[in-house]
Amino acid sequence: MSAPSRNAVPATWVLMAVATAGGLLLGPVDLLGQVTLPYPWANLANSPAVWAVAAFAVGAWGVEGLVRVSVAGALLLVLAVEGYYASAVVFLGDDSATFYSPVAFIWMGFGVVAGVVFGIAGAWYRSSRRWQANIGLAALGGVFIAEALKNVLSGTFGWSTALILTAVALLVPLALGRTHRHRLESLALVVPLALVGVVGYLIAM
Questions:
Q1: Which pTM value belongs to this model?
Q2: Is 118 exposed, middle or buried (CB count within 10 Å of its CB: 0-12, 13-18, 19+)?
């Protein structure tokens, strides 16, 4: 696996600007998906795993500098939370107090953690080091299985949503792996990392 070209690495200010724009867009798009998509697809719109994809993407684009991709991922998800609540206030008539409610701060806290983890995972996915590339890609697949298991255990979502999340988890390494070896090794790590994610979910609940 070859390292990314230096010319492909965006400047820090560009990375942060894209993370900001992405966060402000993700929240409203998430809300729109929840109110317009049919079951079980509406559940996916409100999936933390789908939000993790956004942090992963900005980390993969940022490529270098774990601090800056961590900040970019966290910034994106924190702004997405506030963008979500802002959209609910404007379009659904929710109380503006949701902006600074305890629930909002809890979700922003989760956003910081997930943004750091998946921002780094995205950067590792682009790494020339095999173990980093494998873990980075497997982490993205694993978060979908972790969410599926967590929701089945808690009764939040039905089996239809869980099966879709699991299918996505298995497709992620196959679709994004850069070589056959990368795909297979990442796929082998998906379930172990998913179990780590389930433990994290259960601790957070």
A1: 0.91
A2: buried
